[in-house]
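User: Hi! I have a protein structure encoded as tokens and I'd like to know what sequence might fold into it. I'm fairly new to this, so please keep things simple.
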């Protein structure tokens, strides 16, 4: 069931969300998008980043067989994408604490901010590497890297719009930045959709029978979960695109009372779309689990699965 992958879905979204929030908030500060009140928006975004990272790390423990041995996962950093992800996520959080200390001291911390943002992006790249390295159809694609990295941009655009709406809604210049965020968001979602369409020819359903090679390589693409993978990805991207269009429209009506509600609603749609699409992505993990279970079934001398024949151990 998909609920078994729930911790991974939430963890991946939270790490990318944290990176998007921090980078977007840093940009608001660096370019002085809205002088004065823009500083409050930037500070609020950066402050919430740490708790989001900590929540993602806490959620990830639920997917471990023995959470008390989680520290061992980082010992294989030079050859394991999982170890790299854990290392860079921890570095992301540690650097955030350094930034927090510097911020409370009232000193300039642009170097620390840059390093924190880099650690967040490195954590997301490492996360994508975990799934790409499986060699599985649907995961072993450049889409995995671009999809995860572009999710940082998606969450960054949403963060920018919400923060400026919360703290700068009475400043007209904020509308232009929300308008820009809506345009960037729409371009990113459309790009992800085009990439997925290009990937479609590779997502061909395999025959019902099994063979040793596809099982060992984890590269086959089953019909049931393959269909769910396609359906949820397209649905999620469509919902995100609707949110982007609404954000763009809301910025045009920024001076009106309904604009604030529209921006919050668009943010909700975008986040919901990302969640739906990510659920589709992880649905392929369930297919792999089922194949591992099915691997105990009887096979003929060609390695093909014999329906109804299961070893005693299975």
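Assistant: Happy to help. Inverse folding works backwards from shape to sequence: for each of the 314 positions I chose a residue that suits the local structure. Here it is:
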């Amino acid at each position: 069931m998909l609920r078994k992958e729930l911790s991974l879905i939430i963890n991946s979204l939270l790490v990318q969300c944290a990176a998007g929030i921090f980078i977007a908030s840093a940009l608001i500060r660096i370019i002085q998008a809205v002088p004065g009140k823009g500083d409050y928006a930037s500070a609020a975004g950066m402050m919430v980043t740490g708790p989001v990272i900590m929540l993602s790390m806490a959620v990830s423990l639920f997917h471990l067989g023995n959470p008390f041995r989680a520290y061992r996962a980082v010992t294989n950093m030079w050859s394991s994408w999982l170890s790299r992800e854990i290392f860079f996520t921890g570095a992301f959080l540690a650097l955030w604490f350094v930034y927090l200390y510097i911020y409370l001291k009232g000193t300039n911390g642009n170097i620390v901010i840059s390093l924190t943002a880099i650690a967040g992006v490195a954590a997301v790249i490492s996360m994508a590497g975990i799934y790409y390295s499986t060699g599985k159809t649907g995961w072993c694609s450049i889409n995995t890297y671009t999809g995860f990295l572009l999710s940082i941009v998606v969450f960054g655009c949403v963060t920018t719009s919400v923060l400026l709406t919360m703290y700068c809604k009475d400043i007209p210049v904020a509308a232009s930045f929300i308008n820009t965020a809506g345009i960037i968001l729409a371009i990113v979602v459309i790009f992800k959709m085009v990439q997925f369409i290009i990937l479609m020819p590779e997502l061909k359903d395999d025959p019902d029978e099994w063979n040793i090679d596809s099982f060992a390589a984890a590269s086959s693409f089953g019909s049931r979960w393959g269909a769910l993978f396609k359906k949820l990805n397209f649905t999620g991207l469509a919902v995100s695109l609707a949110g982007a269009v609404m954000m763009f429209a809301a910025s045009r009506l920024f001076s009106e009372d309904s604009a604030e509600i529209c921006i919050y609603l668009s943010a909700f749609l975008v986040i919901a779309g990302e969640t739906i699409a990510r659920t589709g992505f992880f649905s392929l993990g369930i297919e792999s689990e089922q194949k591992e279970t099915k691997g105990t079934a009887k096979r003929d001398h060609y390695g093909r699965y014999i329906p109804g024949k299961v070893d005693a151990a299975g």
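A useful reference point when you look it over: Confidence is low (pLDDT under 50) at residues 206-219, 292-297, 299-314. Feel free to ask if any position seems puzzling.
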